[in-house]
Design a protein that fits this description.
Number of strands of chain A: 4
Largest sheet of chain B: 6 strands, mixed
CATH topology of chain B: Rossmann fold
Radius of gyration of chain B: 18 Å
Strand order of the largest sheet of chain B: 6-7-8-3-9-10
Distance between the termini of chain B: 38 Å
Number of strands of chain B: 10
Number of helices of chain A: 14
Strand content of chain B: 25-35%
Largest interface: A-B, 27 and 33 residues
Shape of chain A: elongated
Shape of chain B: globular
Number of domains of chain B: 1
Structural class of chain A: mainly alpha
Oligomer: heterodimer
Number of helices of chain B: 9
Distance between the termini of chain A: 24 Å
Number of domains of chain A: 2
Amino acid sequence: MKLRRIISIIIKEYTHIFRDWRSLLIIILMPVLMIILYGYAITLDMKNLTFAVIDDAKTPESRELIRGFTENRFFVLKYTDIKRNEIESLFKKRAVQMALVIPEDFSESLISNRITKVQLIVDAADSNIGTFINNYSNRVAQLFNEKLNRRSPGILGLEPRILYNPDMKSANFFVPGLVALILLLICSLLTSITITREKETGTLEQILVSPVHPIEIVVGKVVPYITLGFFNGIIIIVFARLLFKVPINGSLSLIAILSLIYIFVALSFGLMISAVAKTQQIAMLATLMATVLPTIMLSGFIFPIASMPLPLQYISKVVPATYFLIIIRGIMLKGIGLAELWQHAAALSGIGLFMLSIATIRFKTTLE
Amino acid sequence: METDKAVSVSKLSRHFGKFIAVDEISFEVNRGEIFGFLGANGAGKTTAIKMLCGLLKPTSGEATVAGFSINSETAKIKKNIGYMSQKFSLYDDLTVKENIEFYGGIYGLSREKISGKTDQLISELNLDKMKNSLTKSLPLGWKQRLALSTSLLHDPSIIFLDEPTGGVDPISRRNFWRIIYEIAGSGKTVFVTTHYMDEAEYCNRISIMHKGKIIELGTPTGLKQKYNKTTMQDIFIHIVGRN
């Protein structure tokens, strides 16, 4: 390794990057666009679920029960005083997700301390929504009981204390994940294109007849893009903070350092692809396929790894985002530090070094 | 290792799957010689030159370039040769000056040496006004002369030119060959492939390649006498037609 040669490559790469300001603009704006798009689109927050009520009782108590559903941001009462046979068509039209049927003797039954049943019909085609409605309705019923019957015998009551994301905002969970997805995608795209482009123009051949060693080319290509990737990371986190008010409870400098490791992994991955792919298009496609899908499906980005079938759980162990998600969510939401995260950081570094060695080995000094 | 042969090739072959691109060729190139590789497209010239530059591994056979084996000492070869491919391989989006500095850098030249060489090259090529313009704005003939000059930055003893004058107008080609003569005059060996017959006349010795084999080798005058023809064009058509 000769520093002089590496520096020459680094200078040349920077010149390429800054001269092509259009691409530079795309590199900078793409993460912003992606975080806005994904950040607002991917949400599991239940809001504005619509429901219908058939209130046959029409008493203060029945209205009290209905208010239990409407006095929050989750439910919107859309239909009242409809006929029973209309309920089914409302469900079929997807006009409501839930229907509440209060019987005529609702109040009398309550007053005479009989067990009173109210019918709740739930559209559980989306099982998450179904579960949510079911749980929430039980909670409404429980509160209703407590309010109505203060002398009720002491039954078991759970007092939940919700840690790390007390408002249960799904943005707090997804936006750090987006940092992982976008950084990986952009950084690996950058490097996967840079070498295949030189293959296409023939300049790579000219470099390969010189005494340059593959490791020097690889290092010379990685260094400029690390700074670019790091800058991207800052932009993404700033936007996450501004747009989605995601908390950053842990150390910013720890986020910076561990993000650098993750960027290094992404760049090495791109290099690995570019050492094999012959054209820029192939490199781009391969990078997209190999980063986006595993990161979204197998890293815990949306779906918990623990509930995946075992073989998929093993695969998730080699997806870099799996580790970075634990790191970034841990630091941002839980405010934890290196003491809890060092193993994941080590795993990431291992994956990065492994990929870089493959890239260097596969990077043929000969053009076969 | 000092020998009077710049290149010496013995039964060198290269196969791509079932296709035999280069078929057991043997020849020698003397120091300071302009050695021409003549042949139609697809005759195997580029494959042969790539093996000699260490860009391709041979399937079988042996060759030494500047005294080093192409099978085991490619790193040493690379320090001693210059290479200019038929594909114009400077960076279009870098300026003339940046290109020279980059190639100087990857050959490990010192900063002072690069800046000295840069000034020297730019004045030699009359590129003073263009030194800070992007390389893509240069006319093709100039680009090729610039590419040739950058491949000589590290002062190699042998220079490989793979169809250096492809697509260039006749006047630029003449100028280009004038430079090749200067290079050879300074003691360097020039190994050049071409499919222009008039260029073959400029070489000290030429070999004619056809379907991966060397089918004729000699001086232009010697070959003309041997086949009793007046131009290389006639000789080429005669020999290739015969095979």
